[in-house]
Amino acid sequence: MEQIINSSTVKKFILPGVKQVIAVASGKGGVGKSTVAANLALALAAEGRRIGLLDADIYGPSQGLMMGVPAGTKPEVSNDLLQPIIAHGLQCMSMSFIASDRTPAVWRGPMASGALQQLLTQTDWQAVDVLVVDMPPGTGDIQLTMAQNVPLAGAVIVTTPQDIALLDARKGIEMFRKVEVPLLGVVENMSTHVCRECGHHEAIFGEGGGDAIAAEYGVRLLARLPLAMDIRLQADGGQPPLVADPNSDTSQLFGAMAREILMALDNNVDAGPVIQIMED
User: What does pTM read for this prediction?
Assistant: First the structure.
C-alpha cells in the first residue's frame, strides 16, 4: 500500500463549482455510513450552505433511495455534463441514477475508479460550498482514487462501538493520514439500541469504542448516534430524520455535528477551492 499511496505522479481532478470536499468513510460495511452521509449533508444545508451529495459507492449505491429520488430517474445532460438531481434541496449524483438498480456493477478496480472519476468530474455542480462524498467501505482502489486525486478538506470516519468495526476504522484513519487528509472526527453509530415501546437504551454493540479511537488519534468524537427503528424507516422511505422530523433528538445530533465540521472547515486555511494540481 505504501508504494501505491506514495506514487510520484498524482493528477488532481478538476471540480468547477465546488469549494470544499469532505469524505464520509468507514473501514467496513454495515456501520451506517450512508445514513450518516445523507443526514450530515442535510444538516450542513440547514446551516445555510449549498451542499452537494455524491454517492461514491459504485458497487452498492444507496443515496437515491435514501434521498427519495424516484426509481428510474435519470440526470439530464447539458454541454456534455450531467445535471445533478435535486433532492431535499441537495445537489445529488449517484451511479444509481445512471444504471438500473437491477444491474450489478461487475467491474474490476480500475473500471470502478474510472466510473467514479466520471461522476465526480462530469457533473455540473452549481456553486457548491461543501460536497459530501459517501465513500464505499474499505481502503481499496476507489478510496485511494478519492484520497489521492481529490484535494479533500477533511474526512469523517463512521464506526460502531464493537471491536471488529474499530479494527477496520483504524485502517480507514491510517489511509487518510498517509495521504495527509485532515480527520474531521469520528462518528460512533449504533451506540445504543432504543426500544420503541419503552424507550429503554441498551448498548448492544458495546460501549466507549468511539471515544477510544478518537482519543487514540487525537480527533473529535463528533456524535454518538442511536440504533433506532425510526431512523431506518425514515431512510428507507426517502425521508431522512433531518427531513421527516427536524426537531428530533437524532436531528439535533446531526445539527451539532454539522456545526462542528463547518467550524473546522472554516478555520482550515489550507482547505480552499478545488483546483488542478500536478505533483512532480
Answer: 0.86
Task: Yes or no: say if 20 and 131 are a contact pair by the CB < 8 Å rule.
Answer: yes
Using DSSP, state whether 20 is helix, strand or coil. strand
- Distance, first Cα to last Cα, the chain: 20
Q: Is 191 exposed, middle or buried (0-12, 13-18, 19+ CB in 10 A)?
A: buried
How far apart are the C-alpha atoms of 95 and 169, rounded to whole Å?
25
Q: Which amino acid is at 155?
A: A
Q: Is the pLDDT of residue 131 over 90?
A: yes
pLDDT recorded at residue 200? 73
Whole-number Å distance between alpha carbons of 173 and 269: 22
Q: Domains along the chain?
A: 19-266 (3.40.50.300)
Backbone angles phi, psi at 260, to 5 degrees: -65, -40
Looking at the DSSP bridge assignments, the partners of residue 21 are 131
More confident residue, 236 or 275: 236
Residue 279's nearest CA partner among 3, 10, 68, 95 is 10
Check residue 169 and give its pLDDT.
83
Residue 211, exposed/middle/buried by CB under 10 A (0-12, 13-18, 19+)? middle
* CA distances, 78 to each of 75, 122, 132, 148, 237 (Å): 10, 10, 23, 29, 30
Read off the C-alpha cell for 18.
465546488
Question: What is the C-alpha separation between 188 and 208, in angstroms, rounded?
Answer: 9
| 82 contact partners, CB below 8 Å, separation of at least 6 | 75, 76, 93, 119, 122, 123, 124
